[in-house]
Every structure is written in C-alpha cells, then in structure tokens.
Design goal:
Helix content: 25-40%
Order of helices and strands: HHEEEEHHEHEHEEH
Structural class: alpha+beta
Number of helices: 7
Number of strands: 8
Oligomer: single chain
Shape: elongated
Strand order of the largest sheet: 1-8-7-4-5-6-2-3
Length: about 210
C-alpha cells in the first residue's frame, strides 16, 4: 500500500529521532577515553605502545617453574621486592591487598598480583610462600637465579642494587613501582609509589576494560 506524504514525513521523522537517540545512548554507554593527565595524578602511567617481556625462567613460590607465559590470560601487577624488607615491601603489599579487595568482582577475578624477589639468596620458594600467605590475598611469587632476575628487571625498568650477602641482615635497595602487564603478556605501564588504593580502584577497572 502506498504511503501518503504525511505518513512518509512521520516515518522519516521517527527514523531521525531514533538515530539521534542511538547516538546519545552510544555516547553515554561507551567509556570515555582515558585521560593520561588524570591517570598520572592517581599514580598510573601508561605507555603509548606496549613493550614485550624477555624470556626468563624463574621458580614459582607455589612450586614449579615461572615464565612470562604465566602473565598471559589476565591482567597482572608485578612488584619487585624481598621478604626481609623492613618498610616499602610490606607497605606496598598491604596497599595491593587493599586495592584488589576494593575492585569490582569482574576486575578482581581478572587481576593477579605477583611479587618477584630481588633477594634470591634468602627468598626461597618456601620463604616467599610463607610471606605471601601472611597477606591472605592469593598473591603469587617468583624467585630465581640473579642473572634471570636482572634480565627481567632491566626489561621492566626496575632498579635494584645487588647487596653484599656476606653481611648479616643485609638490605636490598630497590625501586618501588608496580609493573602493569596486560592479558597478552605485554608491559603496558606502571603504578608509582606510594600507592593510593582508593584512587586506583576507580582508574584501574577503566584501564582493564579498554
């Protein structure tokens, strides 16, 4: 049946309104682009291009080997520290526990925290496992030969000074940033210390959803 001029006008008007509504809804639903300046204010720094990780072979705190393949399939936060650290390490691990506990369930289930030891002399897998269990947050751990650790740390811009292990109760100087790795196992940025779990719990899910 042929449409009258009025009916055609009505259909065109309705279609135009639908397009406008669709555009508005899409704009509202679609996440706003990440603002790098706002992210930096909350301590998050993202690279323009992801960086690959080197092939290394470490030991998992849970037993068995640990390689960068373990960083694929979920988002990962890597913190380089050691279990005998008196200050920055327990503080950072507690902040990471607070952060993971405050994330929405979907993001929390898709995020893994791993502590990589820069003190392989003392941090055996068993020692690391006992230390990580203290936080009761399901954290993972890795340790290994000094040259393997140094290779991974260098690729992730982590600085630390190998200590004189002949001295009792020696300390290890190390940087405190937390490395971010995406589900494809790529180095995409870092969290600057000290961590702000409240701000990060708002910005991290947006990064993970991009």
């Amino acid at each position: 049946m042929a449409l009258s001029g009025v009916q055609k006008t009505v259909l065109i008007t309705v279609a135009a309104i639908a397009l406008v509504i669709g555009a508005v809804v899409n704009k509202v639903v679609r996440p706003a682009p990440l603002d790098r300046e706002q992210l930096s204010q909350s301590g998050v720094f993202l690279f323009d291009s992801p960086r690959p990780l080197p092939e290394v072979n470490l030991q998992s705190a849970a037993g068995g080997e640990w390689t960068p393949a373990a960083l694929q399939g979920q988002w990962d936060l890597l913190f380089f520290g050691y279990t005998f650290c008196p200050d920055i390490c327990p503080t950072t691990m507690a902040e990471l526990r607070q952060l993971t506990a405050s994330l929405p369930p979907e993001q929390a289930d898709n995020l893994r925290v791993t502590m990589v030891s820069v003190d392989p002399q003392r941090d055996t897998p068993e020692q690391m496992r006992q230390y990580l269990d203290f936080f009761k947050a399901g954290f993972h751990g890795a340790t290994g030969e000094p040259e393997q650790l140094a290779r991974l740390a260098q690729a992730l811009s982590i600085a630390y000074i190998e200590p004189d292990t002949s001295k009792p109760d020696y300390l290890v100087d190390h940087s405190g940033q937390v490395v971010m790795v995406d589900p494809e196992g790529r180095y995409v940025g870092f969290l600057r210390p000290p961590l702000n779990p409240q701000q990060l719990s708002q910005s991290l899910p947006r990064i993970m959803n991009q």
